[in-house]
């Protein structure tokens, strides 16, 4: 005998529905928070580029230009994350950007002078390193 479950009759239906609503709500909240974060940080790159100069290793040329470019990218990606039609591209762009700037965060964590100029403790710079993969995973989650 085949038993068909009708929608609403399964004891797990409402639990699954609630979990789906929580997941969608959490995802929307993180999209809004991360968009705001990227836009604000992008603006900080443009209007307070001096703050980011100590992060730049001496071996990399055109420090100011790279800071401005990364700021513009953060603003564009943060805004694009808000648009469902562009969200997947923004998410992948954010993953790429976070991967590209990771060496600058490593540089800060191993360079006392850079940390002092940025007024970041060694512990803070190391915690920042561990946040990068979390931000990449959140961006990946936003891609689907």
Polypeptide structure, described:
The chain is an all-alpha fold. It has one domain (13-142). 76% of the residues lie in helices and 0% in strands. The protein is built from 6 helices and no strands. The chain has helices spanning 13-47, 49-52, 63-81, 87-110, 112-118, 122-142. α1 runs antiparallel to α3 (63-81), α3 (63-81) packs antiparallel against α4 (87-110) and α4 packs across α5 (112-118). The longest helix has 35 residues, at 13-47. The two termini are 39 Å apart. The mean pLDDT is 92.
Q: Concise description?
A:
The chain has 144 residues and is mainly α. The protein has helices at 13-47, 49-52, 63-81, 87-110, 112-118, 122-142.
Q: Any chance you could write out the topology, listing elements then pairs?
A:
Blueprint: H1 13-47, H2 49-52, H3 63-81, H4 87-110, H5 112-118, H6 122-142
| Number of beta strands | 0
* Element pattern in H and E: HHHHHH
Global mean pLDDT: 92
Count of DSSP-assigned helices: 6
What is the total domain count?
1
Largest sheet: none
Q: What is the molecular shape?
A: elongated
Task: Note the beta-strand portion.
Answer: under 5%
Helix vs. strand class: mainly alpha
Radius of gyration: 20 Å
Helix content: over 70%
The stretches of 5 or more residues where confidence is low (pLDDT under 50) are none
From the N-terminal CA to the C-terminal CA, the straight-line distance is 39 Å
